[in-house]
Amino acid sequence: MVEAWYMDESQEDQRAPHRLQPNRAVSLEQLRLLGVTYRKLDADNYETDPCLKQIRKAESYSWMDIITIHKDKLPNYEEKIKTFYEEHLHLDDEIRYILDGSGYFDVRDKDDKWIRISMEKGDMITLPAGIYHRFTLDENVCYYSLPEKYCLLGLEALVVTQEITA
């Protein structure tokens, strides 16, 4: 089950949990009120998962891509990690499905406070258009299930979205 909490104001390592002390947990209902939706899916069988197929059909998600965030797999890795962590928003929903590894999505609440959402294998999140957010890997070491995907501090995500036509 996904876990979320309000973040502290520390500027230390972005991969750290950054929990307030005492912790202020954020429920799935609180995320839903911000327009953030969460689902748990079968990442081991994403290519044939009937739940993912149903979601894609219901939401008209016609395009998918896989991004592997790892220093040996992602060109300009250090630059990309900094870019992912820059606060930004999109004009369309952003959908991310974690196939392996783990990381954090941070979103701003209605009072402009950061909420950190811990994501791991099988988690799918939809961020609504117009919500300020950012992404970072966490401090966990991951070992991908495929032999060629043995990594330190990495993540593999399926990008699912509507096809944009001109």
Describe this protein's structure.
The protein has 166 residues and is of the alpha+beta class. The protein is 14% helix and 34% strand. The chain is globular. It starts with a strand and ends in a 5-residue tail after the last strand. Mean pLDDT is 83; it is low at 142-154 and 161-166.
Layout of strands and helices, then pairs:
Layout: E1 3-6, E2 25-26, H1 28-33, E3 37-40, H2 50-59, E4 63-69, H3 77-84, E5 94-108, E6 114-120, E7 123-127, E8 133-137, E9 155-161
Antiparallel strand pairs: 1-2, 1-6, 3-7, 4-9, 5-6, 5-7, 5-8, 5-9
Question: Tags for this entry?
Answer:
166 residues, alpha+beta, 9-stranded antiparallel beta sheet, disordered C terminus
Question: What's the gist of this structure?
Answer:
The protein has helices at residues 28-33, 50-59, 77-84; strands at residues 3-6, 25-26, 37-40, 63-69, 94-108, 114-120, 123-127, 133-137, 155-161. It is α+β, with helices and mostly antiparallel strands and 166 residues long. Strands 1, 2, 3, 4, 5, 6, 7, 8 and 9 form a 9-stranded antiparallel β-sheet that branches.
Strand content: 25-35%
Radius of gyration: 16 Å
What gross morphology would you assign? globular
Q: How far apart lie the N and C ends? A: 38 Å
